[in-house]
Amino acid sequence: MNSTKTGLDSRIIQQLPLATAFVDSNFILVDASETWYSLYDIPSEKAEVGIFSFFEGHEKCSSELLKEYLIGNDIRTIHHGKKSRENVIWFESTFAPWLDQNQNIKGTIVQTIDITTNLTRDYELERVQDLLNATAEVAKIGSWEYDLITEKLSWCATTKKIHQVPVNYEPSVSEAIEFYKQGYSRNKISMLFHNLMNEGGSFNERLQIITKNGEERWVAAGGKAITKAGKIIKIFGTFQDVNEQMLAEKRTKESERLLTTLIDNLPINVFIKDKDSRKILVNKAECEYLGKDASELIGKTDFDLYDQKVAQLSRDEDLEVMKTMNPMLGQETLNVRKDGSITHFLTSKIPLLDLDGRAYGLIGMSMDISALKQKEEQLRNLINVTAIQNKKLINFAHIVSHNLRSHSANFSMLLDFLSKENDELEKTRIMKMLSSASNNLMDTLENLNEVVEINTNVNLDKRKMNLNEGIERVQQNLSAFLQKNRAEIINTTPKAFTVLSVPAYLESIILNLITNAVKYHRPGESPKIVISAQKENDYNVLSVSDNGLGIDLSRYGDKIFGMYKTFHKNKDARGLGLYIIKNQIEAMDGRITVESEVQKGSTFKVYFSDKAQ
């Protein structure tokens, strides 16, 4: 190819930066730039190639369309694409008349550029814009833009829809601010917009507007300053309708407040635990019981708050409830806090289920029944005491009935003998018998009166008594008796050992135990009595052991503390001492036990309660 055909230097054409081709009226390529051949990937050595070969296989570029553009008298542009291995390469070709010096048409000048990148960018921009429009419509998120240079405010369609204004509405800044509810919302948006224009930055606030139709709605208004060369040129923002969300949040908060008020004012402990038994909610009663604020309890487990053993039992209950999905209702539980204090609870635990029906925690409710348990214990004790007292009363009634009836029959018989007797000596003898019977009746009445006094005295004045001093006083009072019977007393009681006792009862108990030990000694062997004392739990225990005759407990064990019960043929035995001791010690909330073996001796243990009445 040479310049004679084009009228231009061929070297100049070949060096043109833009892909350019000269086509004659017969549609033959006369000359072209190297960039043309490179763009179409056809060797430049091929001369007088038809122009149609360059566009062969291109989309949107038929031979008829090319001919129409090549013979035209004006400038025209077409877009056409050529398929490559992975995608399509898009071109933009411009067709312009090629004129000679006399302005006659010689052919067509064709210039082509690769617009694949630009076209892809346009498509992507269009796709993104469509996506943004769809997102804005679904999420009810609009946009707005303010140009500081033109002082023009623009709203998108969604923003206009939220404000309930026509699509062609064009707001000013002052009009846009007027839409905000007078007071906090309007003052806030005015300050935020002013700061954005002067200082830049961004904001995002939930405020209230009054729409064109007079509806009050919550919106989320956001804004960000766009700068260029350090100068704010535009402000871009978002605008979202959050009215339903805000109303739902308000209803949720009101429900939470109502639920919290209800739970906090329940007279029982309420707590919610997660699957690891950590507390995630506690009510006022639970906080007061544990003596901590809610913030101190959230995240804590029972191992942080209670005794290790109690905490493990509670954890096992939690796991069982969450595993089986079966609630634990009204079960008695025992809580031992770190300080050792004990509380009885009536506890219920209910599994907390998620939307898929899986347990992710539990709701617990505990009612303090310590006072009820105490009352129950007191009632049980009262019933036991009443039963014992009733048994004693029945026994006492039998004793009174039997003894007084015996005395009455004896008196009646003697008086009958006296009335029929004429012999004065016999009458004198009967009168002596009547006198003796009268004395025996008085003794019986005194014994019965002593028992009545012990069992009816409810205001016992218990005092702390030195046991060793009490034993020594009894020894002094019985010195002649003990000496006469050659009795040996070994007292190992600590000097400072004390018991809580009614003073008169203490001496009576010691006296009866020592005299019994002497009375029932083995014939031919001197009495030996060992007295000791020790502390056992809530009792101070007095122990009196002897080497006497002993008692067959298999025969008389249930009768040993009965009234008028004797187990040896001792003429001084009245069977009253042990009965009185038992009544005295039980009246002071204590107890008495006996260990005995025939011909080896006996050991009596008296348990004095260490608790004041």
Please provide the count of β strands: 22
**Helicity level, as a percent range?**
40-55%
Count of DSSP H/I helices: 20
**Percent of sequence in beta strands:** 25-35%
Seen as an oligomer or otherwise, the chain set is single chain
Q: Tell me the distance between the termini.
A: 134 Å
Largest sheet: 5 strands, antiparallel
Q: Kindly report the spatial arrangement of strands forming the biggest sheet.
A: 2-1-5-4-3
What does this structure look like?
With 613 residues, this protein is α+β, with helices and mostly antiparallel strands. Helices cover 43% and strands 28% of the residues. It has 20 helices and 22 strands. The strands form five sheets. Strands 2-1-5-4-3 form a five-stranded antiparallel β-sheet. α14 runs antiparallel to α15 (424-456). The chain is rod-shaped, with a radius of gyration of 58 Å. The termini are far apart. The relative contact order is 0.04.
Write a compact overview of the structure shown.
The protein is of the alpha+beta class and 613 residues long. It has 20 helices and 22 strands.
Task: Record the SSE blueprint.
Elements: H1 3-6, H2 10-14, E1 19-24, E2 29-32, H3 34-40, H4 63-70, E3 76-83, E4 88-99, E5 105-114, H5 116-139, E6 141-147, E7 152-155, H6 157-163, H7 173-178, H8 184-199, E8 202-210, E9 216-228, E10 231-241, H9 243-264, E11 269-274, E12 279-282, H10 284-290, H11 294-297, H12 302-305, H13 308-324, E13 328-336, E14 342-353, E15 359-368, H14 370-420, H15 424-456, E16 463-466, H16 467-477, H17 479-484, E17 488-491, E18 498-501, H18 503-519, E19 528-536, E20 539-546, H19 553-556, H20 577-587, E21 591-597, E22 601-609
Parallel strand pairs: 17-19
Antiparallel strand pairs: 1-2, 1-5, 3-4, 4-5, 6-7, 6-10, 8-9, 9-10, 11-12, 11-15, 13-14, 14-15, 16-18, 19-20, 20-22, 21-22
